[in-house]
Structure to design on (930 residues):
C-alpha cells in the first residue's frame, strides 16, 4: 500500500501542532499557575497502618459503569449497560446493576438526542449503584471512575438527590478522571499570555507541569465552570506518566475529601497510567465485552428480529 | 472444581478458585453420562487476573497490592488454579465440559496405589500428593512409617507405597537410578531394611563400607524402629570370606592379582600368570612354581641349578632343584622383573587372607534368611563379585534343576543380589568378568528365584540388556541430559515428569513399575537404621581439634596465671610429649588465648596469661 501521501499530510499536522504550542513555555506557565491559581501540594504514600487509620478499616468502594452495543447505527441497535460498586472488604458483596437500552422503543428525536439518552441511562445506573453502596457498604469513601461533572448534565434530578444523600450520610464522593477535558486553567492562561485566538485545553497546559505525587489545589476565589455547578476539583499527577489526572469533589465535602488524596496516590501504581488500581479492577469486572454482548443477544433475541432490525450489512462483509 | 475448556477422550482441564492442584494428584471427574472418571494431574498452573498484571496496560506494583491488602482486599484470592488432567483410562467420547470434579476417597483409588499388604510387601515410602486420602485410608495402611524432610521427622500422611515382592516372579529385578545426593543410597538402604524384615536371603556388595544396620536413626520413635542386628552380617573379604583358589580360572586370577595392587598389571605380568597358572592349581602349588622360578632366575643359568642339584644334601633338596630345573627350562625366558612382580602381588593377596577362606559364611547367611553384606576394597570386590555371584547362582540353579530332574539336591534358597555402581559390573560396550553372569541372571534369574537390585548414577553406561530387564525402576534426581534420555527410553515416565527429574528433592523418586503399569511419585520413607559414615569429615576434624585444645587447657589450668618468668618452670611440669620447648609452650598459650580459653593481661611483671 502506498502511504506516502498520508505520511506527508501527517508531517504537516505535526508541524502545525508544534507552531501552535511554541508560545507555551513551561516555566512561564508554571509561574502564572502558581501565582494566579494555586500552589502545588506534595502527596505522600501511606503505610498500611495509615491506610487502616484513614479508612477506619472500612475499606474503600469503587464505582464504574460500562456500555456496549449490538447492531448497526442509530436506531438499529441494542445497548447493554452495566454498573458496579465494589468494596475492598471481601464480606461486602459486589453490587451489579444492569439495563438494556433500545432506541427503537424511544421517541424518535434524532441521533444526538439518542446519544444523550443513552449516556443518561448509564449515569443513572452508576449513581444507583453508588447509592446502594452508600447504604450497604461500610466504607466512608466512594471513588467514581470519571468526572462528577457529567452526572449533573446527564441526569440532573438523580444527581441532586444523590448529592444530598451523600452529604447527609457523610459518605465522601470523589470522581477520578484520567482524561482531563476541562479548559478552565487554559482560559485564564490565554488571557495572561495574550493567546486569545488559539484553542487550549487544560490537559496540554498541565502536561509535565506537576511532579509525580503533586496536587494542584485552586484558590478558593477561582471561578470555573465546575465551581458553578457545585463541584470542586483539583489536578494531580499520580504516576510517572506526565499527564495529569483530575479529582472532583462535592463542594460541601471538599475539605474533608482532600484527606483522601494521599490514599488515592498510594493506590496508584507508579508505572501505570495514573489512576488508582482499585478503579482499574472495578473497570475490568464491570466491562461489558463484545463477546458478552454477542453471545447474550444472539442467544435471546430471535433470529428474524436480529436479521431484520439489528444486523448491520457491513458485518456481512467478508 | 470443574472441567473447563475443550476436552477430549484422554485429557481435560480442571479449574478451581479455592485451592491449588498438586502434580500427580488423582481426581474424580463426575461426568453425567459416563459416570465417575479418574484422572491424574500432569501439569498445574495458576493464574491471577491482577498479578503480575496487565489490566488495560496497567502494571500493579507490589506496594499498591500491599495497600489493597490494608484495605481488606487480598488480590491472591483472585487466583485461579488450572490443572491438566490425564485420564487413567481413555473414555469413549470426550468428557463433558462443566463436569464437577472432586477429590477421591481411598476406596475409589485403592487399586491404583496399593497392590500388596504391608506385611507381605516392602513399605518403601509415601505416594506423593495423596495427603487428602489420609482421612479415608484403611487402618491396615495407616502409620506404617516416618518421613524425613527438611531436617524434621513427620508421621505418614497419605498412601504408603508398598512394593509387592511376590510379583517379582513375574516382573523381576529393580533398578535404582539417581545422581549423588539424590537419595539413591537411602533408597537402597530402605529396600534392604524391608528385605531383612521379611527375612529374604540377600547378598549386598558394599565397597563403601556403608551398609551397616546396627545403629538406629536418631530421633525415630521406638514404634518405627526395627532391630536388624540379627538379620545381617558384615563379611569382609580376606577376614571372613575368601576365594577357593582351585575354583579360579586363569582369567579370574589375572583380574584378581590385577585388582590387588596399585596400577594395572603389565602385559608381561599377565603373560607370566597365564603361562604359569595351571587348572586345578592350589595356592601352594602355584606359589611354589613362582618362587622356584624366581630363585632359578636369581641363580641365572641351567648350569648353576645343575650344580646345586649335584651338591644337594638330601632327597628333599634334590627333588626341589630338579623341579626348579624343569621350571627354568620351561619358563626361564619370562622376564624376571615381571615374575617378581607377580610373586609379591600374589603373596600380598595371600597375606590379606583372600585365599585362606571361602564363601561358606555367605551361604550360611542365605540359608538362615539373612543378609550378607560383602565388604572389601572396590577393586578386589569387583573381581570377587564375579566369583560369588557365579557360585551362588549356580548353587541355586543346580538345586532347582536337580528338583526338576527328580534328583535329591541340597536345598539352596532363592535370594536377592544388590549392589551399587552397577555400571562398573555390567557396563555397556565392553566385557567385564562380572557382566556375563549378571546378564544371565537378568534374563534367567526369575526362573530360579534370583533377583537383582542394581543401583547406578549412570544408567546410560549400564548394559542395555540388563537395563531392559529391570522391571521396576526407582528414579531419583538426575541432572545429566543423556541419563534423563535413557530413563525416558527405559521407563514409562512422561515427558512432563522427565522435565522434573533435575529438580527432584533428595529422597523423592518416581517409581516406574510394570507391576503398577504407570509411574508413581514417592517420597522414600526415613531409614530405620543409619550408616556410621554419615558424619561430616569436617565436623570430625573440628571436634578433634577442639578436643586437643581442651586437653591442653586442662593441663595448663592448674598453673594459671603464668608470667613470663614462669615459662621455664611450667615447661618442666608439663608432659614433654605435648609441649617440647618454651617456643611451643608460648604457641600453645597463644592458641588458647585465640580460642578464648585464657586471656592475656599486661601486669607490672610483663604480659601474663590468666584464666579468662
Amino acid at each position: 500500500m502506498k502511504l506516502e501521501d498520508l505520511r506527508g499530510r501527517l508531517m504537516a499536522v505535526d508541524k502545525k501542532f508544534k507552531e501552535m504550542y511554541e508560545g507555551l513555555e513551561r516555566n512561564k506557565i508554571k509561574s502564572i499557575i502558581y501565582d494566579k491559581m494555586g500552589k502545588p501540594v506534595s502527596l505522600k504514600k501511606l503505610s498500611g497502618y495509615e491506610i487502616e487509620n484513614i479508612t477506619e478499616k472500612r475499606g474503600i468502594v469503587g464505582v464504574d459503569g460500562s456500555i456496549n452495543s449490538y447492531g448497526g447505527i442509530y436506531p438499529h441497535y441494542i445497548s447493554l449497560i452495566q454498573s458496579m460498586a465494589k468494596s475492598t472488604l471481601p464480606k461486602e458483596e459486589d453490587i451489579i446493576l444492569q439495563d438494556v437500552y433500545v432506541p427503537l422503543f424511544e421517541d424518535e428525536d434524532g441521533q444526538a438526542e439518542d446519544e444523550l439518552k443513552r449516556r443518561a441511562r448509564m449515569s443513572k445506573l452508576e449513581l444507583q449503584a453508588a447509592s446502594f453502596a452508600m447504604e450497604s457498604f461500610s466504607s466512608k469513601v466512594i471513588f467514581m471512575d470519571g468526572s462528577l461533572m457529567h452526572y449533573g448534565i446527564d441526569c440532573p434530578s438523580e444527581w441532586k438527590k444523590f448529592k444530598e444523600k451523600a452529604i447527609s450520610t457523610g459518605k465522601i464522593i470523589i470522581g477520578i478522571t484520567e482524561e482531563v477535558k476541562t479548559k478552565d486553567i487554559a482560559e485564564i492562561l490565554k488571557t495572561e499570555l495574550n493567546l486569545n485566538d488559539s484553542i487550549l485545553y487544560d490537559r496540554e497546559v498541565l502536561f509535565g507541569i506537576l511532579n509525580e505525587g503533586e496536587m494542584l489545589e485552586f484558590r478558593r476565589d477561582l471561578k470555573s465552570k465546575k465551581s458553578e455547578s457545585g463541584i470542586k476539583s483539583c489536578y494531580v499527577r499520580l504516576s510517572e506518566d506526565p499527564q495529569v489526572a483530575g479529582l472532583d469533589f462535592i463542594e460541601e465535602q471538599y475539605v474533608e475529601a482532600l484527606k483522601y488524596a494521599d490514599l488515592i496516590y498510594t493506590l496508584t501504581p507508579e508505572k501505570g497510567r495514573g489512576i488508582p488500581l482499585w478503579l482499574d479492577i472495578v473497570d475490568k469486572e464491570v466491562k461489558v465485552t463484545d463477546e458478552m454482548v454477542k453471545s447474550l443477544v444472539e442467544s435471546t433475541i430471535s433470529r428474524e428480529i436480529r436479521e431484520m432490525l439489528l444486523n448491520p450489512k457491513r458485518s456481512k462483509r467478508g | 472444581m470443574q472441567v473447563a475448556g475443550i476436552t477430549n477422550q484422554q485429557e481435560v482441564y480442571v479449574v478451581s478458585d479455592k485451592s491449588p492442584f498438586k502434580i500427580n494428584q488423582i481426581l474424580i471427574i463426575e461426568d453425567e453420562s459416563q459416570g465417575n472418571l479418574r484422572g491424574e494431574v500432569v501439569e498445574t498452573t495458576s493464574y491471577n487476573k491482577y498479578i503480575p498484571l496487565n489490566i488495560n496496560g496497567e502494571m500493579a506494583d507490589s506496594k499498591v497490592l500491599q495497600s489493597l491488602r490494608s484495605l481488606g482486599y487480598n488480590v491472591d484470592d483472585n487466583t485461579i488454579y488450572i490443572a491438566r488432567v490425564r485420564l487413567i483410562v481413555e473414555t469413549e467420547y470426550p468428557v463433558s465440559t462443566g463436569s464437577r470434579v472432586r477429590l477421591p476417597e481411598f476406596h475409589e483409588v485403592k487399586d491404583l496405589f496399593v497392590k500388596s499388604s504391608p506385611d507381605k510387601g516392602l513399605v518403601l515410602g509415601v505416594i506423593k500428593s495423596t495427603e487428602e486420602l489420609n482421612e479415608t485410608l484403611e487402618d491396615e495402611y495407616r502409620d506404617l512409617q516416618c518421613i524425613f524432610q527438611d531436617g524434621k521427622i513427620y508421621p505418614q500422611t497419605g498412601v504408603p507405597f508398598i512394593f509387592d515382592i511376590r510379583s517379582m516372579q513375574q516382573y523381576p529385578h529393580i533398578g535404582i537410578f539417581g545422581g549423588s545426593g539424590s537419595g539413591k543410597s537411602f533408597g537402597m538402604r530402605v529396600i534392604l531394611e524391608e528385605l531383612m524384615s521379611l527375612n529374604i536371603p540377600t547378598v549386598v556388595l558394599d565397597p563403601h563400607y556403608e551398609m551397616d544396620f546396627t545403629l538406629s536413626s536418631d530421633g525415630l520413635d521406638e514404634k518405627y524402629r526395627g532391630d536388624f542386628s540379627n538379620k545381617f552380617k558384615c563379611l569382609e573379604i580376606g577376614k571372613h570370606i575368601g576365594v577357593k583358589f582351585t575354583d579360579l580360572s586363569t582369567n579370574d586370577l589375572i583380574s584378581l592379582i590385577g585388582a590387588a595392587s596399585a596400577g594395572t598389571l603389565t602385559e608381561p605380568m599377565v603373560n607370566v600368570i597365564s603361562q604359569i597358572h595351571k587348572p586345578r592349581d592350589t595356592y601352594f602349588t602355584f606359589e611354589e612354581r613362582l618362587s622356584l622360578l624366581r630363585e632359578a632366575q636369581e641363580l641365572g643359568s641351567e648350569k648353576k641349578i645343575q650344580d646345586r642339584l649335584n651338591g644337594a644334601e638330601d632327597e628333599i633338596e634334590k627333588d626341589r632343584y630338579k623341579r626348579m630345573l624343569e621350571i627354568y627350562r620351561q619358563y626361564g625366558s619370562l622376564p624376571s622383573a615381571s615374575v617378581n612382580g607377580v610373586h609379591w602381588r600374589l603373596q600380598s593377596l595371600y597375606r590379606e587372607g583372600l585365599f585362606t577362606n571361602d564363601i561358606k559364611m555367605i551361604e550360611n547367611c542365605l540359608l538362615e534368611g539373612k543378609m550378607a553384606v560383602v565388604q572389601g576394597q572396590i577393586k578386589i570386590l569387583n573381581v570377587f563379585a564375579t566369583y560369588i555371584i557365579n557360585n551362588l547362582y549356580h548353587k541355586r540353579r543346580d538345586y532347582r534343576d536337580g528338583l526338576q530332574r527328580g534328583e535329591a539336591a541340597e536345598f539352596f534358597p532363592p535370594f536377592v543380589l544388590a549392589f551399587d555402581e552397577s555400571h562398573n559390573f555390567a557396563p555397556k560396550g565392553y566385557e567385564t568378568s562380572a557382566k556375563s553372569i549378571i546378564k544371565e541372571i537378568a534374563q534367567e534369574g526369575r526362573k530360579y528365584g534370583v533377583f537383582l537390585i542394581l543401583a547406578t548414577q549412570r544408567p546410560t553406561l549400564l548394559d542395555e540388556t540388563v537395563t531392559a530387564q529391570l522391571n521396576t525402576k526407582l528414579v531419583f534426581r538426575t541432572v545429566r541430559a543423556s541419563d534423563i534420555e535413557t530413563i525416558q527410553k527405559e521407563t514409562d515416565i512422561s515427558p512432563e515428569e522427565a522435565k522434573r527429574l533435575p529438580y527432584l528433592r533428595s529422597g523423592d523418586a518416581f517409581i516406574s513399575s510394570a507391576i503398577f503399569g504407570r509411574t508413581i511419585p514417592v517420597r522414600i520413607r526415613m531409614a530405620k537404621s543409619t550408616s556410621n559414615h554419615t558424619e561430616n569429615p569436617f565436623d570430625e576434624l573440628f571436634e578433634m581439634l577442639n578436643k586437643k585444645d581442651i586437653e591442653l587447657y586442662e593441663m595448663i589450668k592448674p598453673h594459671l596465671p603464668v608470667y613470663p618468668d614462669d615459662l621455664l618452670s611450667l615447661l618442666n611440669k608439663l608432659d614433654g610429649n605435648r609441649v617440647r620447648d618454651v617456643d611451643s609452650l608460648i604457641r600453645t598459650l597463644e592458641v588458647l588465648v585465640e580460642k578464648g580459653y585464657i586471656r592475656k593481661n599486661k601486669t607490672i611483671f610483663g604480659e601474663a596469661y590468666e584464666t579468662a
